[in-house]
Amino acid sequence: MIWKLVQFFILVLTVQICSQPFSTPETCAATLTWVMGQRYTQTSKIMPAGVVAGISALMTGFYLYKIATGGNHIPPKTE
């Protein structure tokens, strides 16, 4: 019971953090990966915790890849 309250508190805190203007998608994806991964390890249910944790892990990896390679490289327009 207490663990479910802690998970709910972390999820609410995640929503509040991700709605702030200074937060980044990387922190939101990483936090969501951690929270849903914890839920998946407790319940062993693929839907929805495992799916959301997997998608969030992929997005975290994508964001880290983009940071490591220098971000989006948009070519300049030629006239």
UniProtKB/TrEMBL annotation:
The keyword Membrane applies. Keywords: Membrane, Signal, Transmembrane, Transmembrane helix. One of its GO terms (molecular function) is fatty acid transmembrane transporter activity. Residues 1-19 form the signal peptide. One of its GO terms (cellular component) is chloroplast inner membrane. Gene3D superfamilies: Transmembrane protein 14-like. It comes from the Eukaryota. Pfam families: Tmemb_14. The chain crosses the membrane at residues 46-65. Belongs to the TMEM14 family. This is Transmembrane proteins 14C. It comes from Actinidia rufa. The lineage of its organism: Eukaryota, Viridiplantae, Streptophyta, Embryophyta, Tracheophyta.
